[in-house]
Records
---
Amino acid sequence: MFNLLIRRNNKLKVIVLNNQRKLSSLRETLENNENGDATVANQLVVDCNKSGLLNQHQNVLHNKCPYKEPNSWIHLTEKYQRKTYGRYGSSSGISPRICFSTKEDNISKSRYEKFAEPETVQSMISKYKFQQKCKTDEILKREEDINKKLEKLEQWKQELNSRIMKKEADALAAKEKRERLIEEVRRHFGYKVDPRDERFKEVLEQKEREDKKKQKEAKRKAKEQKLMSKLVEKSAAS
């Protein structure tokens, strides 16, 4: 570890000595060139540039225009020149007219807008208002329909409850009827019979058929009675 520190110290001493020699040589050169030769000045700048950056990079670092003259076709494009002028201003050496559209640009832009947006602003506004009105009318219509249905809600509840009660009553009547028929079949045999027995099933079916006939007969008589009452009313009215 100690040897490593000694080596680094020696390297630093060598670098310092080299820099001192360069500075002394530059001083001698400047003293010999009283007129300020450009080559000597450039050499001085290069020797003082310890960062190793290129001139354009140094200019960017110091917030200066990187290139005094165009070095590529990109530097001649409108986009690059506008960007450079916007960042560095008049120091970039670019005319500010580049930032404004030309007559040809305006004509081309207007043609594109006519093709891309054929409708005028007024027509677009009218179309938007019409769409909004349609949406509003649809919402109002739906709300009105909901209100009407809410008004009938109680009626629908009552109808539903009545249908449920009717179904329950019909189911109870059917159950009581079947129990009554089963009891009649058992009385027919005079003793308890298993409902799964074939004889029991036959007698039960016979009883059900007889009961259906009785119901049909009762309905027919009720219908005839109703017709007779209507005829009597008509004859009395005449």
---
Amino acid sequence: MDLNTMPEEEEETYDRHVQEYTAAIDHTESAVNIANRESFERSKRPMKERSEERATSTSQRADQFYQTTRRFKSYDTAKLPSGWLDCPSFGQEIDCFIPSKVPLGEAFNDSIPPGKRYSFKQVIHQHSVLGRKLGLVIDLTNTTCYYSVSDLNKEGIKHVKISCVGRDAVPNSAQVNQFVYEVSLFLSRQNQTKKYILVHRTHGRNRTGYMIIHYLMRSTSMSVTQAIKKFADARPPGIYKPDYIDALYTYYHEKKPRIIICPPTPEWKRSSDLDLNCEAMADEDDDGNHAAPILDNCETEAQMTNDDVLGEEVPRDLVDRYRYFCYQTLKLNTQPRGAKQFPGSHPVSLDRENLQLLRQRYYYATWKADGTRYMMLITIDGCYLIDRKFNIQVDTSLAVKGVREKTHHYTLLDDEMVIDTMPDSGTQERRYLIYDLMALNQVSVVERPFHERWKMIEKEVIEPRITERDNIYQSWNPYYRYDLELSGRKGFWLLPTVDKLLKDFIPKLSHEADGLIFQVLYLMV
């Protein structure tokens, strides 16, 4: 028997197993082949069916992720300004203004639940839906950590920063004047397309309302009460800090009506934001600076002197504009930038050499008051004092208030400020004595004879104010304090009456006088 020869049955069994194994291998696909086949099958399906499949798959994954993480998601709202989360985002438009709380950038997203976010992306979109196009944002906060200005620059929106210190202090006069100037400049450069101004502080109530009301008071004919109500209707409940309301009445020389009641603190102000008297505490967006206490615009009990600095700071661009107007009106050479020349007339001492001038011309005589020389420029935005150094300050105690269409605009007066001591009470009052008119509503009158200009003071300035005073009391604003407009015309006498001026008039003055002034009337023929 040959041991190397296999039985026939065993050989058949082996061949059968080999064939079955080979067939199994032929029907097995690799992972690569499976992926290619599925991709080919998907490409044959309609596009809509494939999109729905992807959307369903993505939605399912998102739902699974949300279901997994929502139980663990928390928002650290302590990083947000107090009361910001529940404070309504913005109010109704007020002419060109939109009062708003501060929009917060994406850095605060982890602290704000969905549906509560309010960034400039939402601001621009929401107002676009309402048909409003923003052109200017005025930021009154005292910090720069809330959002990036680059978000506005990309949209072509101008951003102006006016840092207002908090701690219960109203914005100071320089900040108010800057606000009014920026708004006026923006509106003057508008094209036919109306663009809006978004004004915000932390919550868009007290300081925001204070600034907007200042502009309304200077640009329209309304009382403080009407302006406060207009803001409150657009941004309920309006200004709710009494110091701000009192400051507005003081600033614009109006008596606060007894019916004016400060609204209560809004509900969105948490209890932790209230002091022991249940009044709103200071905002928390400051950089640590503490404001000075609120000061009234009325004269204090401190002793007045001629060295007191009067008026409030105005923006530099506005100073340059008014200086240029003075040079043009008085036909003076424009000075190089930085050089300052007082545009008013310069007196000549009456020594022996100049006595002959009294024989060559006719003169009026008046007293030389011991006061401070100023020129006053009256515009629809306020009254500006120009001192001997050509510094320009706005002085609200000299407000020329009335119907806007009749208000002086670019009227230039020459005068002096004196301090009267009342003989009965001994109290002091400032008086602004006008003795010359240089320009009337942008028209120069310096080439007219003095006696004509002097009469124009009474006709164009004094008498209209008396008429407007009666109109103010009897109609739209019975609370306006006209007595705080401290101005009047200075008297002049012919030379033959100088003796009476010296002996009878000057001794009765309520302020000091230290000589005489002779004003030329016209040349003798």
